[in-house]
Every structure is written in structure tokens, then in C-alpha cells.
Amino acid sequence: MITLEATVAVKEGLHTRPAAQLAKTLKLFDSTVELKSSKGKSASAKSSVKLMLLGIKEGETVQVLIDGSDEHDAADVIRRSLSDPDFGLELSDDSGAIVQGAMPLEVEPTAVAKPAHAGIKGVSGSRGVAMGPVHVYIPEKLVATRQVIEVGEIPDELSRFRRALLQLEQRFVAAHQPAGDAARGKDRDKGDDIVRALLDVAQDEEFVGAILRGIEGQGDAAAVTLRVGAVLASTFEAMPDEYMRARAEDIRGVTRQLASILLGQQLPDLGSIREHCILVANDLSAWEFSRVPIDRVQGLVCIGGSATSHVAIMARTYGRPAVLGVPLSEADLQAAKSIVVDGDAGQVIINPTELEAAHYRGLIRAEEELRSGLARYRDLVPHTSGGRRIEVAANLGSLAEIRLAKEAGAMGVGLFRTELLFMQRPSLPNEDEQFAVYSELVAAFNPLPVVIRTLDIGGDKPVAGVEFPKEENPFLGWRGVRMCLDRPDVFRPQIKALLRASLSGNLKVMVPMISAVEEVRQVKAFIEACALELEADGVPHARFELGIMIETPAAVLQADELAAEVAFFSIGTNDLTQYVMAADRGNSQISRLYRTDNPAVKKAIELTCQAAARAGIWVGVCGEAAADHKLLQSFVEMGVTELSMSPAAILPTKKLISEL
Q: Does residue 310 carry a catalytic annotation?
């Protein structure tokens, strides 16, 4: 048996998606895995519902007990999963969709002054303003007329329930075929992730097991499903954490879908929504919202829900203003003909007066003009007034983000993090698996450049197949290039996959955590050896440009020598700032020190750019500061020629560069 302690770094803790992903992954192992919260409550980590009910928050230290033949592999999965802030999330809530409400704008609309209007207050789920005719979604309450069955009916009732579960899964698969995505709207990736997690909840042993036991106790399948769903939802609603309380909505949505199948009742057709409407509902689950043809919906109003609900997350992702938790009755909704959704103020106005309608039309028009003004920069190659061309590229972590980056006008990829390929698996990805991902990414942007960072992991970001020593400070330990050079069995498949993928387009590769010239020379020799192996085996491949990340003070102080060895520098401002300032970027108590605009950090960037200029190589910035408009002019003046950032920040940055 293995007992370990882990601090949960997953954003918002083990809520629906991370819990579902963890449970799903651990079911691949034979070992039993029990997770104990800091409050002493424990549950099987193979049950997503049980995990959620533990209410484990971000930053909480938990104990894990693992027992079985593959316990060491399972322990590796637990460690890396709980230490990854984005585990189970893939895309962040702010996915960078270039649509209303999803993209942070540098300048707020000011064309229309905003007077106070007597709206009905709710909770802002997604910012922005919308107005239009109402489409009411109030499903008929599901009621099971039969409660008890005969003993002889139990086997048939169990079979009926299992068929309903299968039908529920088939309904999901049919609704999310790629061919249907265009008809329902574009921004579906996050929605699909959420709905897949809900399907895992629907199949969870805690939920399904309770229903099966109820049927075995002579309960009608529909009646038991409704009862178990209500009890489970109430359990979540009683939890102290707001985020976990919002998961009650997920349980109710899954219950409603399953019970409707068992009762043979059709829920209202969300596909019949008319163009440019405001969707209003008493209670809307993420499952149901995923079926909405989002291009027809301008905004959302819901009696239930909160800012942390999955519906709110999806509304933000799709860029639709939303106000939830509105104190209205179903009769109020039915009486509404038109409605204003003010996601900025968190209020709605039912049947607005002409004066109110005119005011909000002005706000909507001003916001559209602002977005339209940015949209014209999508295909623009930005130049400063002095004629300097600046590349604005995207930071990506998965293939799912390619479309967002291209729609945002990314001029390639300035940073592709390969860690996710390694961190969400029970074993190391082989050469062919990596090649498939890298080649698809490079081909998608060809002929634009794609910069892929080699594996950047350490004790704070472990992966299966690499045993990391216990380190007092893993940020200063065996990580990045240090680990890769010590583990050729890990590094070789990645380098060979990258050499093969280089045939697919304009690939550039950069190496993280460089602190010595000798490390670069070792990497170059390693790449050459891998290329010779591929050549000997007759495997097609091509050389790529090699660059390094400048993120240690040692690299800054040796920039001239390093520049002679590589084709480009990419400044990782996140780590460079924390290393120059000796300030842990995750420590809120010293956040005042963690500032890229500190003169010491800016001096380090300037020295790097000067060395690059002397060597005739280009310099990019790929840390969060790349999207900081207060630093943009300084970067350009220092000699930075490429900025890489989240897709959401690309258009405003292109605009600002053109105005320098």
C-alpha cells in the first residue's frame, strides 16, 4: 500500500470536470484509490460524484491511499493530476473566443452614457448587453405516476433503466458529431468538455448505484431516478462552497434527461429557437444549454444558476451576456415579450419602455462598433508608425485551441506547451503519438511559424514514467532541459517526433530552463544524433530552427555566448521575473515584488535584446507580460519582434502596435 499527501493545485478544486477526469483515469488501474480530505472525510477516487461531495478546494492538502498491483503507476497519475492547475479543464473559462463578452477589451464603450435603469437584479454570469424577443424554456415538471413495482418486475425494470442509460449516451454522441457543430454554432469545445463530464456523472457508481439499489427495493425506475437526483442535488446545495453548490444544477440536468427517457416524455425542442432571441428559463442545465443553436441566441436569463455554474461558464465561452439567479416567477417569464440582459450590471429589464430600449440599443451599437474596429485587425500584419513589423502569435496548450487562435488572427504559434501530452496519461507518449500531435499543429498553421517548447516539467509538474526526487524548491531543481538531458529515453522520442513533424510546415523548437552554454551544445548534439538515427532508418524528417527560452538570470548574463549558438531567443517573463526578483510568483504575500515592470526585470530583457541584436537573431516574449499593453512600447523599443499571448489578447495588441 502507498500513502501519500498532495496539495490540490487544480483551479477551483475537484469540481465536476476535474473529478470526472480523475475518476475516469483511475478506473484504468486495478488498485483501489481512496482520497481523504483535510476534514477527515474519505471516498473512492474512482467515483466522480463521491469526489465532488468531498468538496475539496484548491490549495487543500489531501491524503491518498493506494493499494494494488499497479499502485506505483496510479500514484504517479494522482501526483501529476492534483498538481496541475488545468487538470480536467483543457480550456480556461476565458477561452479567448472572439465574440461578444468573451474578449477583454482595452477600452470600454463610451459612446453612450449609462444612466440608472430600474432593472431586476440577479447575478452576472457573463458580461455584455443584449436585447430581443423572448424564447421561454420551461420544461413540464417530470412526475412518475408509479412508485412501486412488483418483485417479479425487478429484472425487467433494471434492464429498462440500463437501456435508458445507453440511450442517454447515444443521445449525447449524436448531438455532438462534428457535422452538427457548425449548425449549432462555433464555440463548442468548452461546452463539449463540460457535457462529457456530466455524462461521466450520469454513469457514476454513486448516482447509478443508488438508482439500481432503489429499483432492487421495488422502486419504479423513473421514480427512483427522480428521487435519487433530488437527494443528490440537495446534498450539493447544502455544501458551504459556492462552486460546489452550483453543481446541483448539473445533477438536476442529468436527472431530468434520464427521467424523461424513462417516462417517454419529450423535453421542449431547443433546436426550434428563433433568430436573435433572448433565452429565458426557470432552470437550465449545461446539458440542455449545449443543445442550443447558439448563433440564434443573443443572451440568457435564468431564474436558477450562479456565476460559478456551468451554464455561466458556457455563456462566457460563447460570448453571450447572461444574468442568472433572477428573482422571477415562471409566470413572469411567460408574460415577457421582450427583455434586456445587462450582464455588466447583473440585471434584466422585462418589456422595456421605448426610452430604455433606445438606451440599450445605443450601448449594443457602441460595443459592436468597438468589436468591429478590432475585427479589421484580424488579418493585419501590424507595423509601428516607424515601420517596425511585430509578429503577434498565440500561446497554446492543446490542439483544441487551434481554431480560437486562427479566428483571433494569430500570426502563428509563439509557444506550444507540450506538457499536457505527458501530464494527462498513465504512461509516457511514444514517438508516433507525439508526432501525430506536432505535425497536425504545424500543418494547421503552415506557412506561419509554430514554436514548440520541449518538455518543461519538474517536481511541481510530474509525469508518469519520470520519478522526480523530493526537492525543497522544485522551481530551482531538476526540471526542463536538466531533466531531459539526464533522461534521453524521455527526450529522444520528443526530438525525433519534432524532426519528423518539421516536414509539415514552419516548425521552430525552443528549449526551456537554460542556464549554461554547454546545455545548448549538448541539446544540439542530441538533436543531430536523433536526426542521424532517423536517416539510418529511412524515416523522412527535416531540421528545424533551434531557440532557447531566456528565463534564468544566468542566461541573461551569458546572452552573447548563447546567441552565437541558436537562431532565436524567447523570453519567458513569468519565470524570468520570479528568478530575477527572487519572488515566488505563486506567493500572494510577496506579489508586490513579482512585477515584470520592475526596473531590474526590464534591464534583464534589455540586455537580452541587445545581445540578440549583436548576433543578428530575433527575440520574442511569450510570458503573460507579452499581452501587457503598458509594457508594449518598452518591448518594441528594446528590440522585441514577436509577442505571443492568449488568443483573447491578440486583436487589442495588434491594434495598439499599429498606433505606436
A: yes
